[in-house]
Design a protein that fits this description.
The chain is mostly helical. It contains 9 helices and no strands. It is globular, with a radius of gyration of 16 Å. The chain starts with 6 loop residues before the first helix and ends in a 7-residue tail after the last helix.
């Protein structure tokens, strides 16, 4: 395998800005439990092994149920998610894989039934952030589990 560059070393100014965006999620109007679902689903869709691994461990540490974690890819068929969680997952999917002609009005209206304007805006920034992290982790082949100790993810017991 070809050794990839260390983007953190070469672009610390951009890394710091990305970290600031990620840290801003702590003040989000979207609850942490939903943010975990969003991070996992976008990472699954993008095929980002590093981020799937990390966000599943974070969700587990914060009390997410194991069966719900298994059901994230099949959330449409699962009965384990609330209407609000479903709206967040639908918005995640549509923004992660944008349709050729943008977000259809019916999807927007469906999601808006469950999220305020502020919540929809905050959620959109969270989806933008995880998609950016996915792209950098995929581009530079971050190894799943390689940051567990640094990020305190060993507490997940996985």
């Amino acid at each position: 395998m070809t050794q990839r560059i260390n983007y953190m070393e070469h672009s610390p100014e951009f890394l710091n800005k990305m970290m600031a965006l990620t840290n801003a999620e702590k003040e989000s109007s979207i609850e942490e439990k939903i943010l975990h679902l969003v991070h996992i689903r976008a990472s699954q869709m993008n095929g980002c092994a590093f981020c799937v691994d990390m966000h599943i461990k974070q969700a587990k540490i914060h009390g997410e149920g194991e069966l719900r974690l298994y059901h994230i890819p099949i959330w449409r068929e699962s009965t384990l998610f609330s209407p609000r969680e479903r709206a967040a997952l639908e918005w995640t999917e549509i923004l992660t894989k944008l349709p050729e002609h943008g977000v259809p009005d019916e999807v927007y209206e469906s999601v808006r039934e469950h999220l305020s304007e502020k919540e929809l805006s905050d959620l959109t920034f969270s989806i933008m952030a995880i998609n950016a992290w996915n792209r950098i982790s995929i581009a530079f082949k971050n190894v799943p589990g390689s940051a567990d100790t640094a990020f305190g993810l060993t507490k997940a017991g996985l």
